[in-house]
Amino acid sequence: xxxxxxxxxxxxxxxxxxxxxxxxxxxxxxxxxxxxxxxxxxxxxxxxxxxxxxxxxxxxxxxxxxxxxxxxxxxxxxxxxxxxxxxxxxxxxxxxxxxxxxxxxxxxxxxxxxxxxxxxxxxxxxxxxxxxxxxxxxxxxxxxxxxxxxxxxxxxxxxxxxxxxxxxxxxxxx
Length: 174
Description:
single chain; alpha+beta; five-stranded antiparallel beta sheet; four-stranded antiparallel beta sheet; 3 helices; 37% strand
């Protein structure tokens, strides 16, 4: 049984076989197809790379923080930071916080290291902050209580919101 398989294999790929002759006749076509496939793959990689360079790449984070100055540390703050990881400047209009019920807390004149609207250059970041007690008070006024998830965001000049990951916030602690 093994010997039969071996003999069939030998006949199929011997230099006298029809299959071998067909492969030898078609090798220029096979090489051409492989080169064309290689070119298509390189072209796709190049296109995706160029597309990524033109895409807005803003990373937003929402964290708790303390500011320090000559008098010591500030009260507990909630900070929203935007970092531009892309290759083009992005115009940021306003920071805010998205609530669990999809309403937003927007800060028209936030405390921070820039003023808005702000052009965020590639490789740069900006941060705004607000006291945790003020956030908690505003959330209570909007009938929210207990543990909730907040999402920080920055809205850009064309209306797109760049959002952070969820941040767990306990309103009752503040």
